[in-house]
Structure formats: structure tokens, C-alpha cells
Design a protein that fits this description.
This protein has helices at 6-24, 29-56, 61-65, 69-78, 86-101, 105-131. The protein has six helices and no strands. The protein has one domain (6-131): Four Helix Bundle (Hemerythrin (Met), subunit A) (Up-down Bundle). The protein is mainly α and 135 residues long.
Length: 135
């Protein structure tokens, strides 16, 4: 069964849009908050799609389902699905956790600084997933 990447395509596009808009006025807290929310749902979709792709290509999907997040990223790296290593993905995961549990201005600014590198990775992940032969 072919995986449907349309939700991730839309999320990456919305994140890129949000980042472009934020770049025009970095002092606008409302735009920044919208950008952070777009980061959150793009991160979540990237993570879920990565797990689904690994499950679809695995002889033992249950083993993929039981993988810890570091194991998931390492396996994805071994299969050529992600460009960044575990330490980068851990940073983005921490950013996601920070934004979903608390709101502090300094943390929000810190998260927005990390979004461009995540956007690059998410777009690259999407490209790699779409180029992967159907299973």
C-alpha cells in the first residue's frame, strides 16, 4: 500500500509560508506564535510519516512500532531517509516539547531560531520519502 504524503506536503508548505512571513517582521508575536504552531504540527507529521515509512518497508512492522525515538532516527539514517543525525532530531524534539507544555518569550524565540534547520530537514525527508520506490 502506497503511503499518502499529502498531509506532510501541506505541513511543510505551511511551515515555509510561516517562516517567510515571520522573516518580514520578527517582532510580531502573533506571527511568531503561528510559526511555532506550524512547526509543532509539521514535526509531529514528519515523525509519524517516518515511522509509517519504516514500518511499511520492514519485514517486522511491530519491531519498528516498538522502537524508541533514537532507534527510529538511527534506523531512518541507516536507510537514507534522514540527513540529520540523532543529536539534531533530539534538539527538534526538545523544541517541540518546550512549545507544547509552556510558553515563555525567551523559549519561543529560541524555538523560532531552530525552525529553519528543521524545515530544511523536513523538506528533505519528504523528498526522500517521495523518491523511495513503492513497497
Amino acid at each position: 500500500m502506497a503511503l499518502d504524503f499529502s498531509a506532510l506536503v501541506n505541513a511543510v508548505d505551511r511551515l515555509r509560508e510561516g517562516l517567510d512571513r515571520y522573516a518580514t517582521d520578527t517582532s510580531d508575536a502573533q506571527i511568531r506564535d503561528g510559526l511555532i504552531q506550524r512547526f509543532e504540527f509539521t514535526y509531529d507529521l514528519a515523525h509519524k510519516m517516518l515511522r509509517r515509512a519504516l514500518e511499511a518497508g520492514s519485514a517486522n512492522p511491530e519491531a519498528v512500532d516498538r522502537m524508541t525515538f533514537p532507534e527510529l532516527i538511527r534506523t531512518a539514517s541507516e536507510q537514507g531517509l534522514v540527513a540529520s543525525d540523532w543529536s539534531e532530531w533530539r534538539t527538534w524534539r526538545e523544541m517541540r516539547n518546550i512549545t507544547s507544555h509552556t510558553y515563555y518569550e525567551a523559549k519561543a524565540l529560541q524555538v523560532t531560531e531552530g525552525i529553519p534547520s528543521f524545515l530544511t530537514e523536513a523538506a528533505d525527508l519528504l523528498r526522500r520519502l517521495m523518491q523511495r520506490p513503492p513497497l
